[in-house]
Amino acid sequence: MEKKYIIAGNWKMNKTHLDAKEFIKDIIPQVNKARSTVYIAVPFTALQTAVEAAKDTNIVIGAQNMHDEENGAFTGEISSSQLKCLDVKFVILGHSERRHIFKEDNAFINRKVIRALKDGLKPILCIGETKEEREKKLTHQILDTQFSEGIKNISNEEAANLTIAYEPVWAIGTGISATSEIAENTHTYIRKLIIKYFDNKIANSMHILYGGSVKPDNVEELMQQENIDGVLVGGAALKVESFAQIVNKA
Ligand code: 13P
Hints:
By secondary structure, the chain is of the alpha/beta class. It is built from twelve helices and eight strands. It is 42% helix and 15% strand.
């Protein structure tokens, strides 16, 4: 069976629940014939509204983060069961903004991935190198560490519900996307990592999304690459018009 692409939007800390309702209502008729699966990761405060607005459509709603503990004294945090109870389907984990601004390390991200998988949420594990790391030719080493430590103690069976997003930090929000060649080369390397730590079958079925300045005018070329199974879109996912274009071009 051919793999269905995933086109995911990440709204980051943008939009109220009222904006979310409006956005989803407006985009539904524009993406209802999409060949890809459409994901939108909204802020916590917009989850309930977004899930209701997207009910019985092809749009899947997810969160942008969660804590690994089931419950307890973690002021300001959100658990997987709280997300599940809202019918949230996926969660972005280890986004570079969480790693760099909020200092989340691989061990913490790994605990979150384990928790999400155990509780039936599909994690999108983000990995990616900084500009300095790429210039120092450390990209493969960084990706190997972030990947292998992020998926520690995850069984092959659980890995069936895991998605990887390659998001080079230097391409996020900069307007400078990785070229399709750089993205494809790096995705090919990530595919090899999946074989190394899981197996061939899982490597073939696992989605590897590309993220970093994806726009309507570069999505087609990126999506033509053999190892790019979808995209994770920030800025261009905030407008109905540009996100719908990306979905329909992919
Ligand atoms: P931009 O598309 O704004 O570069 O953001 C990418 C991203 O971080 C998605 O998670």
